[in-house]
Specification:
Helix content: 10-25%
Shape: globular
Distance between the termini: 44 Å
Strand content: 35-45%
Number of strands: 8
Order of helices and strands: HEEEEEEEE
Radius of gyration: 16 Å
Largest sheet: 8 strands, antiparallel, barrel
C-alpha cells in the first residue's frame, strides 16, 4: 500500500510538472548577482508578451519588446521583436521549475535561470516575482 501511495504521489507531481501554467500578469526579474539588471515581462492570457530590460548601461527603448510566449515543460519561452537595432528579435527562456504561485509573491521572488539568446547560451540567475 505504501508503494502504491508513493507511486500515485510521484505520478501526480509528474503530471503537474508537465502541465505548468503561467498566471497572466506582470513579472519583474532582478539579477541575483548585482541587483542592477531589471527585466519586466507582461504575460497575457492570450499568450502575447511584452518584455523590457534595464541595466546600468542600457534601457530597452519604448514600448519594449513584443511577441508571444509558450510554456514547454519547465520552461517559459518568449519570442519577441524589439525596437533596438542589433536586437530586433530575441528569444528569452526562463526555467520555471522552482516557480510556484507562492514563491513569485515573496519579497525576494522565485530563483530562476534566464537565458537570452542575444547574450549567449549561459543562463543568468534572477529572482522572479509577480508584481501585478
Amino acid at each position: 500500500m505504501k508503494i502504491f501511495a508513493l507511486a500515485l504521489l510521484f505520478a501526480s507531481s509528474l503530471s503537474f510538472a508537465l502541465n505548468r501554467v503561467v498566471e497572466p500578469g506582470t513579472y519583474q526579474a532582478v539579477d541575483a548577482e548585482t541587483g542592477t539588471i531589471k527585466a519586466t515581462l507582461i504575460a497575457n492570457a492570450d499568450l502575447t508578451a511584452m518584455f523590457t530590460v534595464m541595466t546600468p548601461d542600457f534601457e530597452m527603448p519604448a514600448p519594449g519588446c513584443v511577441g508571444t510566449y509558450l510554456v514547454a515543460g519547465d520552461f517559459l519561452k518568449a519570442d519577441v521583436k524589439c525596437p533596438k537595432e542589433g536586437l530586433e528579435q530575441i528569444q528569452v527562456t526562463i526555467d520555471i521549475k522552482n516557480v510556484t504561485p507562492e514563491s513569485v509573491r515573496t519579497e525576494k521572488g522565485a530563483d530562476v535561470d534566464v537565458m537570452i539568446d542575444a547574450l549567449g547560451t549561459d543562463p543568468f540567475k534572477f529572482f522572479l516575482r509577480k508584481i501585478k
